[in-house]
Amino acid sequence: MKLRQKLVLLSTLSKGLMAAVLLLGLPWLVQTLTLNHTDQALRKELRRVQVRITTTGMAEFLPGAMGNGHVHYDLLQDEYIELRPITEAATGRDTVRDTVATLPRQQYGVLVDFRVLRHQLRHNGRTYMLEIGKSIASIKDMYSLLRTLAGYALLFVMLSTLLLELGVIGYLLRPVDQIVARLRAVRGPGPPLPPLRTSTSDFQYLDDTIQQMLHTIRTVFEQEREFIANASHELLTPISILQNRFENMLQAGNLPEEAELQLVSSQKILQRLTATLRTLLLISRVENEQYARTEPVAMAELLDEALEELEDRLLDRGLTVHRHLAAAPVVPKGNRSLLFTLLYNLLSNAAKYNEPGGSISIRGEVHANSRYELRIHNTGPPIPAEQLPHVFQRFRRIHTGSTEGHGLGLALVSTIADFHGLSLQIQSGEEGTVVSLQWQQGLVA
Amino acid sequence: MNVLIIEDDRALARELGLYLHNERYHCDFARTGREASEKLFVNEYDFVLLDLSLPDQDGLQLLAEIRQEHNQQASILILSARGTVDDRIKGLDLGADDYLPKPYSLLELVSRMQAITRRKHGVKQDVLEFGPFALNVSDRTLRHGETEVVITKKEFDLLHYLLLHRHKVLTRLQLSEHIWGNMISDSDERDSNFIDVHVKNLRRKLATHAAGDWIETVRGVGYRIHTTPEA
């Protein structure tokens, strides 16, 4: 899972969790808030009543005026004020603190719950109990209004912050995507990349480090390129001298026969040295990305060419070749001469390690996702299981038959396959050895 | 024919000169780009053999100069140990006539020079005859009278090369160098021993049409073709 997806998921989950907690706690919170609010409203009312008592006396609040002991001053009877005298004994104490409680009181002659503030006051030597009440039903209206409002607010905040966060995450993480894309693109030395545009210091550091590493890679490639060029020159020139000298000596034709045979034998050794050196240099050059891989390469043509080159070898050993290619195998971005070398070496091995009169079968099929698989099967004796994992390593010879090369052929094959992004596999058993090549036929994303 | 050998390694230049001298070429030598420029300015050459790694100048640069500045009609062959991929393409693009990576066989070099000469003078040697046989180079067939002798591609190349140098003994190495060139493979068929297999097959095929030993084995060193049958 990508970092961006994880962060988006985290953000969404945390928002969801927060919303759930808030929604669960909302009724209690709103209730508490409204009750507090009501209590404060009642206390404010009390102060107004006290002010009125001190200015106009308490006659208008005393029972009798309205007859039922309650003084409702709203039409719906949601609120009331009641003032009644009480005896000292009824209170039991000198001073009693104000209390606020939910108590049943009459409304239209029915008992309903009221939020009631009770306050004792002394006036002209008598003690009075002042009650100011507000019906719970009216509070509940406000409570539900508040709850709806809070719900909408919550939804709005959640959605807007979520959207904002997703946007910000996307923006902040864009450098990461770019860095990942850059790293994916690194297959060898390339031109220096422009610096990453980001204000996040971690990403800047990361980008700097990557740039440095790419620089190092470039330097190493350059050095190796130089080394290869020097090695080619320094090693191939002396070989050239020897080879030409041997050729001249033989051409003169004035040497005793024994000496000539010695020379021929030396020539062969020199030829082996040349072949090994050339293969090593080719492997290095391919690894050093000194070859272009730009053209679509039709593998069927190359198979034809390679088989034609090997015609005599096949005839000599009495080998038959079966060929069945589904569709036309094409490596979309390849190097023709390298791919030829690859197929030539595979087929040459298939001939070399075959038994006389055996067969080579070349099969190509298209798999899902337009992956092409090319299988080259030979009927030679099995490669020992313990050697199989090492056959693509340099200087590993396959010890099956009497013929032996310099042990670099399959290493070269593997290097060229890697260079083209072909997957290379080998299997071997009683029924022969199969080398399989797989690649993406269509354009690689 | 005049040849300018531009090569900074004395020993290599000496071997090259010796072989070409025996082939009746007249050789001149230059060890640096500067020296080469001077000689090219003064003399006319039929061939310039150019090594790309010169002490004072890049061979490709010199090549471009020869093609642009000098009024030289010389055919240019690049002989290089550098062997980078681009060198060959660049060299041919800059007007070189051929490219041989080191190490090469001297016989191959002379063959290429002869081919260039034939091309230059429009000499077409389409049919090479020996005894009752005719090797047709343009349609790549071997005929005995009216009958076609079926031979493989490699057998054809081998026979062609032997016929081009019909009075010489060609060593196995020279033959394998010509037939497999710079094919890079981990295989013994590049090995000069495999030449023997080809020669054996060719002899058998020739003998079914006209008795006699057409290809002589010389002292275990190499082979020579006979234009008249040996008993």
TrEMBL record, chain A:
GO molecular function, one term: phosphorelay sensor kinase activity
Origin superkingdom: Bacteria
Signal peptide residue numbers: none
Reactions that this protein is recorded to catalyse: ATP + protein L-histidine = ADP + protein N-phospho-L-histidine
SUPFAM superfamilies (alphabetical): ATPase domain of HSP90 chaperone/DNA topoisomerase II/histidine kinase (SSF55874), Homodimeric domain of signal transducing histidine kinase (SSF47384)
Cellular component GO terms, alphabetical: plasma membrane
Pfam families in alphabetical order: HATPase_c, HisKA
Keyword rRNA-binding: no
Entry's transmembrane regions: 7-30, 149-173
Enzyme Commission number(s) from the entry: 2.7.13.3
Domain Histidine kinase intervals: 230-443
Keywords: Kinase, Membrane, Phosphoprotein, Transferase, Transmembrane, Transmembrane helix
Name listed for the protein in its UniProt record: histidine kinase
Automatic annotation (TrEMBL), chain B:
Domain OmpR/PhoB-type, first and last residues per copy: 125-227
PROSITE patterns, A to Z: OMPR_PHOB, RESPONSE_REGULATORY
Superkingdom of the source species: Bacteria
One GO MF term: phosphorelay response regulator activity
DNA-binding region of this protein: 125-227
Domain Response regulatory: 2-117
Matches recorded under InterPro entries: CheY-like_superfamily, OmpR/PhoB-type_DNA-bd, Sig_transdc_resp-reg_receiver, WalR-like, WH-like_DNA-bd_sf
Residues where 4-aspartylphosphate is found: D51
GO BP terms, alphabetized: regulation of DNA-templated transcription
Recorded GO CC terms: cytosol; protein-DNA complex
Keyword vocabulary terms for this entry: DNA-binding, Phosphoprotein, Transcription, Transcription regulation, Two-component regulatory system
PANTHER family: REGULATOR OF RPOS
Protein name as it appears in the record: Response regulator transcription factor
Organism lineage: Bacteria, Pseudomonadati, Bacteroidota, Cytophagia, Cytophagales
